[in-house]
Amino acid sequence: MVDGDTIRVGGETIRLHGIDAPELRQTCGDVPCGARSRDRLAAIIGGQAVQCAGRERDRYRRLVAVCRVAGVDIAGQLVSEGWALAYVRYSRDYLAEETRARRQRLGMWATEFVPPEEWRRGGR
């Protein structure tokens, strides 16, 4: 795992399509949400085979893909548990999962946090 929304599979760096996870060093209140997001991603994969369907490459040349483990959409699982946000700038695929996580105050939603995109721009 690189971070909460980027993995390496067979030497390829893959950005999970449609989500934005906290940056590795990002905190949400006192919670190290960036590290927790990455750790949850690792747990979801759990050493299992990952199947990815690539869509395009991002500006960092990472393959942007929908990835699954044992039939489970990894990105959707992260969003539904509150460890990533639906990245609506690029996709509206995970809005329902985000809404449920927010209502249930799961993961990042259990505390105050700055959206990852804003945090990267310096809104820390």
TrEMBL record:
Pfam family, one: SNase
Xref: InterPro entries: SNase_OB-fold_sf (IPR035437), Staphylococal_nuclease_OB-fold (IPR016071)
Every TNase-like domain range: 1-111
Protein name as catalogued: Thermonuclease family protein
Organism annotation: Peiella sedimenti
